[in-house]
């Protein structure tokens, strides 16, 4: 149950994630391979239209897309230096 609330808080803080992403990719403290892996995740999500649940099923298809996007964002946060995580509260 605790993990569910943690993920829900993460979704609600999504507006803070854009500046976090910008600083993540500009930071010299983040290794180049971590930036490349993150970009591959993001571009792969955008380019490949594969859905576990098709979007025409209404809210379930949207939830599927949001879940995959949140998973990608969580992986990027895990790779970020701790001072970036603390600065943006993610």
How are the SSEs placed, and which strands pair?
Elements lengths: L1 H11 L4 H10 L5 H16 L11 H21 L2 H7 L2
Task: Tell me what the structure shows.
By secondary structure, this protein is an all-alpha fold. It has one domain (2-88). Helices cover 72% and strands 0% of the residues. It has 5 helices and no strands. The chain has helices spanning 2-12, 17-26, 32-47, 59-79, 82-88. It starts with a helix and ends with a helix. The mean pLDDT is 81.
Concise summary:
The protein is an all-alpha fold and 90 residues long. 72% of the residues lie in helices and 0% in strands.
Features:
90 residues, mainly alpha, globular
Number of strands: 0
Described by strand count, sense and barrel closure, the largest sheet is: none
Task: Name the quaternary structure.
Answer: single chain
Shape: globular
How many helical stretches? 5
Roughly how many Å is the radius of gyration? 14 Å
What is the H/E string? HHHHH
Structural class of the helix and strand makeup?
mainly alpha
* Percent in strands: under 5%
**Fraction of residues in H or I helices:** over 70%
Mean pLDDT: 81
What number of domains? 1
């Amino acid at each position: 149950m605790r993990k569910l609330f943690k993920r829900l808080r993460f979704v609600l803080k999504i507006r803070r994630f854009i500046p976090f992403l910008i600083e993540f990719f500009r930071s010299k403290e983040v290794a180049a391979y971590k930036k490349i892996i993150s970009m591959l995740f993001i571009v792969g999500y955008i380019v490949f239209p594969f859905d576990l649940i098709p979007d025409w099923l209404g809210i379930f298809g949207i939830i599927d897309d949001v879940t995959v996007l949140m998973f990608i964002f969580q992986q990027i946060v895990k790779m970020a230096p701790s001072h970036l995580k603390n600065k943006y509260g993610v």
